[in-house]
Amino acid sequence: MGNWDSYTTGQRVKLLRGTDFTQETLAEAAGVSVGTIRKIEQGGSVSLPTLLRVSEALHTDVSVLVGQQAPRRAMAAADRAALRGLSAAVHDTAAGIGIDAAPPEESVHAAKLAAAWELYQLGDYTGAALAVSPLVQQAAAMVKAMLADRVCAARGVLSDSYRLAAYCANLMGARDLAYAAVGHAQTQAELASDPLRVALVASGRSWVYLRDSRLVQAQEVAEQAANAIEPRYTDSDPKRLAVYGCHIVFASVVASRRGDSDRAGDLLSHAHAVGARMGNDITTNGVSFGPVYATAQAVGINVALGQAGKALTLGKSLGDRSALQQATQNRLALDLSMAQCEARMWDTALDTLMSVCTEHPEWARHQALTVILGRRIGKANKGALRKLGGVLGADLLAG
Predict the structure, then answer these.
(1) What are phi and psi of 33, to 5 degrees?
(2) Which of 66, 87, 245, 293 stands the most exposed, by the fewest C-beta atoms within 10 Å?
(3) What phi and psi, each to the nearest 5 degrees, are found at residue 117?
(4) Which CATH class is domain 196-336?
(5) Statement: 4-65 belongs to CATH 3.30.450.20
(6) pTM over 0.85
(7) Within the chain, which residue ranges are assigned CATH 1.10.260.40?
(8) Confidence of residue 232 (pLDDT cuts 50, 70, 90)
(9) Domain HTH cro/C1-type: where (predicted)?
(10) 287 DSSP β-pair partners
(11) Residue 329 above 80 pLDDT?
């Protein structure tokens, strides 16, 4: 794909509809004639209201249609629809809009939220975004309708919903929406007087900082949140240990990205100790942690520190990885591919990358690193790189 502003409006419409729409189905979705769609794609002039209807049907902004801003890489119509719905849910509920409906049963909502988290942990970020959008609105309705003695619990649920919305937005590249959602999650967690949820939100904020290349703030927030909930030596609550350990290992990840090997090593050792106290991995409130998770993260930490050999040795030591969520397993494969690349094991690196991307394309196309790594591996196997580029929606042989 060339520079987005170099295309005509008609070319942009054709690119955006891709394989998601035919001219006929786009016309039906937009409420215009097929002739109008053909006219646009052939370079003809149409009115702004028509362009607005077409952009709405394509789940994108009209500014993208006319070339003022480019669409995100590899974002299909379903992705754009999910993000628009998520944005509406987050911003409308924060403004008190659309929260007058009868709230759902708490148990029903909890089950649906758990299912949305499961989609996220599988790496289906579009599916998770679609699932959590109505749950944000329903949780806000619960807060409004709840009696005083139950309102704190409802605020905790709303905080969890906003936090998942922030995670989805962050991975789908909508950084402003991620910041907004995590801010609303923090407010609700504080109003719920729930220190553990406040810490969970802080973890989410530090992750948004990391994706936004604000590494100093990411590490500060992660360590401060961990210190705020540090368990006593006698505290054996697995949920508290899991949340605490997750913060510690994330702070180690950020330290490794900053090149601070001493701090990364200290934090990682502490994370391993917490994992050993737990004995096994658990998932709670949308986060996972335990001894296997700590080792999996250690692979990526060592890659970031330039210790590819150690990363590969750790990868071999993992053995059974079934305790890891699917998205974590996918990221581990990506880290191993990077380590293999650093060790100049080009064919092995390509095989590892190809395997995870073809088996989990919905996850892969939201990972910018997959494209960077694919291009770095080189052009020895052009056929494989073309196939991988098709999965990722990028030309891996460019540049």
Answers:
(1) -80, 155
(2) 66
(3) -60, -40
(4) mainly alpha
(5) no
(6) no
(7) 4-65
(8) confident
(9) 22-65
(10) 284
(11) yes
